[in-house]
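Ticket #4471: complex job returned nothing on first submit. Input attached below:
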Amino acid sequence: MYTLSKPTLNDIKELLKIENECFTYDRLGYYHFYYQIQQRQIFIVSNLKEIMGYISIRFRKNYVYIASLAIKKRYRKKGIASFMLATLEKSYPIMKLDCKRHNINFYHKLGYKQVCIKYDYYTDGEDAITMEKDITCQKAGQD
Ligand SMILES: CC(C)(COP(=O)(O)OP(=O)(O)OC[C@H]1O[C@@H](n2cnc3c(N)ncnc32)[C@H](O)[C@@H]1OP(=O)(O)O)[C@@H](O)C(=O)NCCC(=O)NCCS
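Support reply: We reran it on our side without changes. The output follows.
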């Protein structure tokens, strides 16, 4: 059993731990989380014991950009990231993000489409794949 909620500034320490566990490159720092919490642009997923992961977003004019998404290793492959995305997609029907190649299939499974490649995007030299899901478009196509 887990729930999605907005973190408080008291959660930053735990968010930084998750960041260190989940990423070896381009890690987000204290001020990212501080700013995102103040802006109410970050959600955590928690069970009764702890924060299991987070999603950090940015509100753009016509869509929501996913700045980061991470789930602690011991909670992965249980549908938790999918649950977070599905919950946000109900409020924000157009979502975009950049990801590494090894995560493309994760987003494909959830209906995201590849829209472009940004070469040498990450500090470790890997490319970023820009992915997008536009639920308004999908609905129009199904009619
Ligand atoms: C990517 C990540 C957020 C996925 O979280 P998760 O909670 O394990 O994802 P889910 O359980 O909702 O996975 C949904 C499906 O995608 C699959 N999947 C998960 N991660 C995958 C990956 N990296 N590549 C391909 N498929 C993946 C799952 O097996 C599952 O498939 P199924 O429905 O057939 O069982 C998590 O692995 C993570 O935190 N990784 C490290 C940080 C990271 O890379 N974040 C993404 C930045 S863009």
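The chain has one domain: 3-142. Closing as resolved unless it happens again.
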